[in-house]
Amino acid sequence: MAIEDDVVVVGGGIAGMATALSAAREGAQVRLLSHKESTLRHASGLIDVLGYADGLVADPFEAISGLPEEHPYRTVGEEGIRDGLDLLDSVTDYAGGHTDRNALVPTFGGRIKPTARYPKTSASGLASDDRDSLLVGFETVVDFDAPLAAERLSADVPFDARGVTVAFLGDFRTDARITRLAHALDENERIERTRNGISTSLPARTALAERVKPHLGDAERVGFPAMLGEERPGEVIASLEAELGADVFEVPMGPPSLPGMRLETAFHDALKDEGVRTTSGNPVVDFEGGDELEAVVVERNGAEIPFYGDQFVLATGGLVGKGIDSTRERVSEPIFDCHVPAPEDRYDWSDPEAFGEHSFARFGVETDDELRVLDADGEPEFDNLRAAGGVLGGYDFAAEKSGSGVSLSTGVVAGRIASEQVNVNP
Amino acid sequence: MATDADVLVVGGGSTGTGIARDLAMRGLDVTLVEKGNLTHGTTGRMHGLLHSGGRYAVSDQASAEECIEENRVLRDIASHCVEMTGGQFVQLEGDSDDYFEEKLEGCRDCGIPAEELTAREAREQEPYLTEDVKRAISVPDGAIDPFRLCVANAADAEMHGARIETHAEVTDVLVEGSDVTGVEVRHASGPGKRDHAKPGTTEEIRAEYVVNATGAWAGQLGDMAGVDVEVRPSKGAMVVMNCRQVDTVINHCRPKGDADIIVPHETTAILGTTDEEVDDPENYPEEGWEVDMMIDELSNLVPILRDSRTIRSFWGVRPLYEPPGTGTTDPTDITRDFFLLDHEERDDLGGMASIVGGKFTTYRMMAEQISDHVCDKLGVRATCHTADEPLPGSHDFTLLHDYMEEFGLRSPIGRRSVQRLGSRAEGVLTSTDPNPVICECEAVTRAEIQDAIEGAGTDLNSVRIRTRASMGNCQGGICCQRMASELHPEYDEPTARDALDELFQERWKGERHGLWGEQLSQAALNYALHATTMNRDGDTENIDFAAFDGGNRGD
């Protein structure tokens, strides 16, 4: 007996999970195949829809019509984006849904960035809120230098930001991982402390609040690097707020990003609830089929295992997620070898300026208006293969701040169409 | 305002810092000026080979003998900069037997310990060598860190009273009558350590004697003094791999040719090189085909290179020189000897000499000879001690301590710090507490970064070459920001930001040549991390905050 589903989604990032959820909610039996850790642990956990077009964007929906033709948003339209955000809101308790407007969230480099949805843990930190802020960093958490970030932030925002660096609690190794420290706060582990020769122990959250209190001053809100608990950040924040008498927020960080990992967990729970079958840990290496795709083949311990389906969605990510690959000579899509346009000379793939107009940032497959993947002649590569998220070309998610928005919206639309096709051809 | 020195050395590469150390140790009052950071020119752009002399054992036996002599000296005085990897001259099927025999004999003639290896022995030592190996010659080639070496020379010169000024570009050579009396320099920020935010100043430095040790740039300095120094700059491309595919230096045993050496260097392997004359040492084309050729040719020796990850490429310029009238057309035929041009003898201009040509491995010997010349000119009687006195970091460096427990670091990190710092490890690593890891790829901790900032100010590229932070697989994507943070609060936010921007751009520039496969994926991640998560590219000035989401208190 073959392994068979209605819709097979390849890729476990936001796009793949949104696709799978969308297809499942439309009634299809869905299989989600993921290979490695998703790139969510590298991402901030913020949901960007469109932060920059011709300059900073306050309302992404107003700016969509000005995007170039090949942009994925032009394919899925405003409705697709709204559907994508609705799906997110059904999965998480993120904030920002009360308005179409972007929020400005301070990040660990001390700059603010526009985003459409943000975790509740970051909600008290918004830059348009004019309450004075204290940023707190830890001596051993080297990604976030709170005094430096505060100085940077103060140049841009309408409030006073101060920063202080404190020692983390207890007897952790100097190079202890952020996840280890977050775990201590989650569990409210008891922390040993010696003062004047007398040893006492305190719960971690209380100990942290005590360390911060002397620095509070006039600040009405306090920002920490995003490591306030892996699983129970709400609880950690509530404890800290009670002890400090001030609002507490998290400043999104780079890898390993706890908000990104929490977001992944929320999606996994939703997928489970919808009955999506998930198979992870092994790569898709091949496929079966002609004009019509019949199966994708997963390699596991040297064996090749086909996953049959009626409809397929490619959501393997871009260059970072390895959904797009390259050699010295060419850029390619490694599973189906779908057409990926790229300049012939590899020096034209990037710009001499670090933040210049990089061609590589736009690498990806082309699709028709139903998100079917197209070959070099503009014909569908397969009748039943669609694409969503980072594997799509024609947009620069980093410069635009549009990564999650494109993944959610194209995922929702691709999942829905795939499911509809199943119903059309049962 | 003018300051005075006995000797002014222009150029902060191996030759310049070597001369400054030598003369300072002899008791002279030395000032060294360098327009970039130390090693900015040719020295920082070499493949890091400590020659055994084997390379020159057929074509240039005098050089070969010098190399093996200095190889032994540097192992002794610069032990913390040297890794004695050993080397092989590999003969492939089809390569000339005669040349192989000549090479073996040449090595022995020059006193280079050389041993013939069968194909099996060669591959036992280096399992990734191609099966087409016929046999090999084993020689005492090594790897040397040119950055660490120059910094140690400069630091020791300073300890002996010298003044070392980086980011100080010579804008004029002062001439009175028929004598050079000094130079005018422009400081990029101010004298002393670099500080990005400060405007520059100029300074006149008078000296009894000026040494032009600017290598490929010697002609430009000569012009300022009104004399002709005809260096023939020749570029060479080098490709940095993400790991050590080989642990010994692999040379292709053939008369000459491009792309015939692989040098294991710290965590990487460096493929080299080409040899092509260029007009201008500063501006010359850096081309993709050179990178491709390096990978394609050397894959014949070590086949896994074909599919390995390339992290960046760089080009260096050799300061080749041959006496006027020699007329060599092929730059690979130009001698690697060095020449001391005494401008008094040559051009009737007193008080200045230029040093051109030469090899990195014999920099100390060159410095000794030049220093002898300078002392002679100044009537100073003093002897050279640079061959006997260890450089800072190489004193009593006999044991590799395991610093895991002492510093709360996991053992490989402690070990690598100690390898880099040598005998300075104890002092540096105990200076900062806590001492977390800043650069994970190269295992560099805060203490090392702080130690480097003390020496280099806000010049993070200079911090980089002292520590190797940002030189690993991620090419600074993760740690550039952390390095810049270490400048604060001693330096303010705009200064730290400028320093970060400069380092990030420098890393980006070299990475572009290797952007495909894994490294393009890494570059896309770095770009995303800095542009997306931090929004370092987006404009955030003069925002109308009321137009944005006011959060749970607003709206």
Automatic annotation (TrEMBL), chain A:
Q: Does the keyword Glycoprotein apply?
A: no
Q: Does the keyword Lyase apply?
A: no
Signal peptide as annotated in the record: none
Catalytic activity, EC: 1.1.5.3
Question: What is an example of a GO molecular function annotated in this UniProt entry?
Answer: glycerol-3-phosphate dehydrogenase (quinone) activity
Q: Can you give the residue ranges of the FAD-dependent oxidoreductase 2 FAD-binding domain?
A: 6-406
Fetch the Pfam families from UniProt.
FAD_binding_2 (PF00890)
Keywords attached to this Swiss-Prot or TrEMBL record, sorted alphabetically, are: Flavoprotein, FMN, Oxidoreductase
Q: Which domain of life is it from?
A: Archaea
Write down any Gene Ontology CC term. Answer: glycerol-3-phosphate dehydrogenase (FAD) complex
- EC class, as a word, reads oxidoreductase
* Name this protein carries in UniProt: Anaerobic glycerol-3-phosphate dehydrogenase subunit B
Q: What is the lineage of its organism?
A: Archaea, Methanobacteriati, Methanobacteriota, Stenosarchaea group, Halobacteria
From TrEMBL, chain B:
Q: Which GO terms describe its biological process?
A: glycerol catabolic process; glycerol-3-phosphate metabolic process
Q: What is its EC number?
A: 1.1.5.3
- Source organism, top-level taxon: Archaea
Xref: InterPro entries: BFD-like_2Fe2S-bd_dom (IPR007419), BFD-like_2Fe2S-bd_dom_sf (IPR041854), FAD-dep_OxRdtase (IPR006076), FAD/NAD-bd_sf (IPR036188), G3P_DH_FAD-dep (IPR000447), G3P_DH_GlpA_su (IPR017752)
Where does this one sit in the cell?
Cell membrane
Annotated membrane-spanning segments are none
The GO molecular function terms of this record are: flavin adenine dinucleotide binding; FMN binding; glycerol-3-phosphate dehydrogenase (quinone) activity
Its chief place of residence is: membrane
Question: Which reaction(s) does its UniProt entry say it catalyses?
Answer: a quinone + sn-glycerol 3-phosphate = dihydroxyacetone phosphate + a quinol
Q: How does it assemble?
A: Composed of a catalytic GlpA/B dimer and of membrane bound GlpC.
State the similarity comment: Belongs to the FAD-dependent glycerol-3-phosphate dehydrogenase family.
Q: What is this protein called?
A: Glycerol-3-phosphate dehydrogenase
| Organism of origin | Haladaptatus paucihalophilus DX253
Q: What is the lineage of its organism?
A: Archaea, Methanobacteriati, Methanobacteriota, Stenosarchaea group, Halobacteria
